[in-house]
């Protein structure tokens, strides 16, 4: 029944109505290899529609038997006539790589360039074409060389083999080859080789892959990329680069301060606060204009936002008392360990001034995943309250009990109410017996 329908559907591919032709192509695609006899009609329809997705998908579903005629068409194409074929081949993914590899050997430089670009767009799926692509890095046509370099980076070809070729191409007489080499060098971790000026030239280019590589490489330079802040800000409205630019700005520290107004604008337009808040944290007090947004985010319903806001507030707010009063209660947050850990990390910087956070931090000690961050903060703050320290003696962690014993001992006679508990521990707890005994001697030197 399916095969009987193929001729009728093939005839409909010639219909004057666009929707009818597309429905016929879709139906043939669903038949898979049973629609092989309709290939000539499908190819004609695809050519007429410039490789539209519905035909590309149909041909890909028909399967590998569609590849030889596509290669034949590509090799016979002149100028840009075969571009639609490459659109089709891209839909096949990895199975099309052998065909595209053959196209890399075409006598037409335009076909070689287009095939390299198509392979590059496949990413890792195009890795099997690395060998012929390496050959094309020495092609006589600069456009082909440039396309080969970009494709080799995109398919994750052998970097040890590729890096020397890129290094050499950085000095090529052709601008496009130099740009492709720069983009590849940046993508493979060569930020230092290109320097800020070289990366900014790459960012100013119109090649999307090169711009992305430049943005990411600038992040590798950290604060040394400070001269790039304004150019990065200028590209923040580019949706393809926006996320990477925000990430890069987070590595630039206080030098990224000029980006604060634009970041706040983006925070209002879309919910990107979890990526923007870390940038503000890195900028520190230079991001003071963002404080209203940060305080609002502290009370957000999303735990990730609140956690990031707590960290940012500790870095940006110059009024320590105000920051502590806002962050300390978060250590008692009941529904999110991430928020509690962020709060503990944030209050540690304030030392003894953050004593209001101690009860919440002690409550975190019961949770193994939070104990480390809580102890770090408690040590930074210092615990002087005897009841608090006594509650820590009940925690089933030797490090916590040891800290509590030592802290009680440091209080001397002021910790006399804890003496009975310490004697009990000295008699029963082998792990902290010596520490408890030493604390008792400090609390009551006359005791035996």
From TrEMBL:
<dbReference type="InterPro" id="IPR016024">
    <property type="entry name" value="ARM-type_fold"/>
</dbReference>
<dbReference type="InterPro" id="IPR000357">
    <property type="entry name" value="HEAT"/>
</dbReference>
<keyword id="KW-0456">Lyase</keyword>
<dbReference type="Pfam" id="PF02985">
    <property type="entry name" value="HEAT"/>
</dbReference>
<dbReference type="GO" id="GO:0016829">
    <property type="term" value="F:lyase activity"/>
</dbReference>
<protein>
    <submittedName>
        <fullName>PBS lyase HEAT domain protein repeat-containing protein</fullName>
    </submittedName>
</protein>
<dbReference type="Pfam" id="PF13646">
    <property type="entry name" value="HEAT_2"/>
</dbReference>
<keyword id="KW-0677">Repeat</keyword>
<dbReference type="InterPro" id="IPR004155">
    <property type="entry name" value="PBS_lyase_HEAT"/>
</dbReference>
<dbReference type="InterPro" id="IPR011989">
    <property type="entry name" value="ARM-like"/>
</dbReference>
<dbReference type="GO" id="GO:0016491">
    <property type="term" value="F:oxidoreductase activity"/>
</dbReference>
């Amino acid at each position: 029944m399916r095969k009987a329908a193929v001729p009728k559907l093939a005839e409909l591919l010639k219909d004057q109505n666009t929707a009818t032709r597309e429905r016929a192509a879709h139906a043939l695609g669903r038949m898979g290899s049973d629609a092989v006899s309709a290939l000539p009609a499908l190819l004609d329809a695809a050519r007429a529609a410039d490789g539209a997705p519905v035909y590309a998908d149909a041909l890909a579903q028909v399967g590998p038997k569609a590849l030889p005629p596509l290669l034949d068409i590509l090799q016979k194409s002149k100028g840009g006539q075969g571009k639609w074929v490459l659109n089709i081949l891209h839909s096949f993914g990895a199975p099309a790589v052998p065909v595209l590899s053959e196209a890399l050997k075409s006598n037409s430089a335009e076909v070689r360039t287009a095939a390299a670009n198509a392979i590059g767009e496949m990413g890792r799926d195009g890795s099997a074409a690395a060998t012929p692509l390496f050959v094309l890095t020495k092609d006589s046509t600069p456009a082909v060389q440039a396309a080969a370099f970009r494709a080799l980076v995109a398919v994750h070809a052998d970097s040890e083999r590729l890096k020397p070729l890129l290094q050499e191409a950085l000095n090529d007489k052709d601008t496009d080859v130099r740009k492709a080499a720069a983009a590849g060098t940046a993508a493979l971790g060569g930020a230092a080789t290109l320097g800020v000026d070289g990366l900014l030239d790459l960012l100013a280019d119109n090649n999307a892959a090169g711009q992305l590589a430049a943005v990411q490489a600038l992040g590798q330079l950290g604060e040394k990329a400070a001269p790039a802040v304004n150019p990065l800000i200028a590209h923040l409205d580019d949706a393809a680069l926006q996320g990477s630019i925000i990430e890069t700005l987070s590595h630039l520290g206080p030098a990224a301060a000029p980006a604060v107004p634009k970041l706040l604008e983006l925070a209002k337009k879309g919910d990107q606060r979890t990526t923007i808040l870390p940038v503000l944290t890195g900028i520190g007090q230079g991001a003071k204009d963002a404080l209203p947004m940060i305080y609002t985010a502290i009370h957000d319903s999303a735990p990730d936002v609140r956690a990031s806001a707590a960290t940012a507030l500790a870095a940006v707010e110059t009024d320590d008392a105000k920051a502590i009063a806002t962050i300390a209660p978060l250590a008692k947050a009941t529904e999110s360990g991430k928020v509690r850990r962020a709060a503990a990390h944030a209050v540690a910087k304030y030392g003894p001034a953050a004593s209001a956070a101690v009860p919440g931090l002690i409550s975190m000690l019961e949770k193994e995943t939070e104990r480390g961050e809580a102890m770090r903060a408690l040590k930074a703050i210092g615990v002087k309250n005897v009841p608090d320290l006594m509650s820590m003696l009940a925690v089933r962690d030797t490090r916590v009990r040891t800290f509590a014993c030592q802290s009680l001992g440091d209080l001397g006679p002021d910790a006399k109410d804890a003496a009975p508990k310490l004697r009990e521990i000295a008699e029963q707890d082998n792990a902290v017996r010596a520490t408890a005994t030493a604390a008792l001697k400090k609390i009551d030197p006359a005791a035996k």
